[in-house]
Design a protein that fits this description.
Blueprint lengths: L5 H15 L4 E7 L10 E7 L7 H9 L3 E8 L2 E7 L1
Antiparallel strand pairs: 1-2, 2-4, 3-4
Length: about 80
Amino acid sequence: MSRCLPSERDQARACAENLAALEIVEAADVLPPSKGVRDRWSVDVLVSTAAGGVPPTIADIVARHELTIELVQRQGRHRNAVFVV
């Protein structure tokens, strides 16, 4: 059963907006529970590999919005990170 709570949606959107403002973030997309394999709101982030992984600035924003790191993987010249509410 998927969780589609408005408060969690807003939480994910706020986090994505803050992450997208960072120069090292190429993209930050909010995905609803019905998309993909996750049953929770998630933020899919593409980070420049120049950042060397998931830097503290990203981890701080994610923690401030109370999301959890679910996945970090290399994707060509970038790293793909997924955070869930």
